[in-house]
Fold:
Amino acid sequence: MNPLCSRCNQIVYPTEKVNCLDKYWHKGCFSCEVCKMTLNMKNYKGFDKRPYCNAHYPKTNFTPVADTPENLRLKQQSKVQSQAYYREDFEKNKGRGFSVVSDTPELQRIKKTQENISNIKYHEEFEKSKMGGEAPPRQPSNAIPAVHQPPAASQNYHYEPPTEPVRQTAAPPPSVGKRYRAVYDYAAADEDEVSFMDGDVILDVQQIDEGWMYGRVERTGQQGMLPANYVEAI
Structure:
């Protein structure tokens, strides 16, 4: 047996059924409770098992909780319990990050050898710096000294860079079709939709169906689908 639509209480057939918010709807009846804009599974927002659009979604207010003596006691108890868990974990993991190596005779010999090598290198560097370092390499006697040649005189004393042609920007094509003005802000919920702000002018508007249009936003230059009840004709 086919279920009834939650909006119009008519029979919903499988080809036009939308199952959402634990209810069944016609595709045309699945609309916002305030502005009646047709919604889909990507741009709806549910509140109290009723569909809303992004602009008319009810805002929930949080109730602040007073710091009663019972709440303060629970807060202090949680803090003490957290500190106890932290100290317990610290004691368990203490000493796991490194292991103590015993000072064996072999390690002592290696340590002594490294110290001697470091001392020898230090004295070598000190003696080199004291004697002035290494002598610069000698040049061979048969080397031909380089002859300094003055740069050739420039023949062009009045050089003028070539001028680039001035580019003419083509004027944008005149808009055709109807013009509308946005009365609400709208954020695109799909790739084929377009976002706009209150007061934006929509150009080249074409009617797609009862709830959707296609047009181009004059401010951003982007084009796509937009809800018909978010704009008004100019």
Remarks:
- The first helix runs from residue 69 to 93.
- The chain has a mean pLDDT of 78.
- The two ends are 48 Å apart (CA to CA).
